[in-house]
């Protein structure tokens, strides 16, 4: 196995896994996405200029693979009248509860809005870079980002984490 590839995965794998978790909204799906994307990256590793970081190439693979998986699931999706109960975050403190609120709200966004937000604010990419990765215009990225942030503001009240942890501490549910 190529030692440069192994070094890259050891050095940058955790960051890309966190990106995948935010894109998919599910830890297990993120691990599957990463495994699939790393195998695709390995197949072309010998052609890449590894003197520059291959982060952008892996990020593009992740976005495209996630998009194709999302489209495949969307075609097979069966609407249901009742939603499953979600497990509670446990006792994570204010920061952990806030992070759980953000992850939960991200998971409820449409895939394109979630992708735009994750790439813009978690991976700290420019609008132009996100547009290139998503295969759309900068204006479309701005629209998805704006709508995603509006939805996040509706889904997460400003004092949600504080209220929830206060409630959990007092034993009221």
Major sheet summary line: none
What general outline do the C-alpha atoms trace?
globular
- DSSP strand count: 0
CATH architecture assignment of the largest domain: Orthogonal Bundle
Nearest-integer average pLDDT = 79
Name of the top-level CATH class of the largest domain: Mainly Alpha
First-last Cα distance = 52 Å
Any low-confidence stretches, pLDDT <50, length ≥5?
A: 165-173
The name of the CATH topology of the largest domain is Arc Repressor Mutant, subunit A
* CATH homologous group name of the largest domain: Winged helix-like DNA-binding domain superfamily/Winged helix DNA-binding domain
Helix content: over 70%
Radius of gyration: 18 Å
Fraction of residues in β-strands: under 5%
What does this structure look like?
The protein is an all-alpha fold and about 170 residues long. The protein has 2 domains: about 5-75, Rna Polymerase Sigma Factor, Chain: A, CATH 1.10.1740.10; about 95-170, Winged helix-like DNA-binding domain superfamily/Winged helix DNA-binding domain (Arc Repressor Mutant, subunit A, Orthogonal Bundle), CATH 1.10.10. The chain contains 8 helices and no strands. The chain has helices spanning about 5-25, 25-45, 55-75, 95-110, 110-120, 125-135, 140-155, 160-170. α1 runs antiparallel to α2 (about 25-45), α4 (about 95-110) crosses α7 and α5 packs across α7 (about 140-155). The termini are far apart. Residues about 165-173 have low confidence and may be disordered.
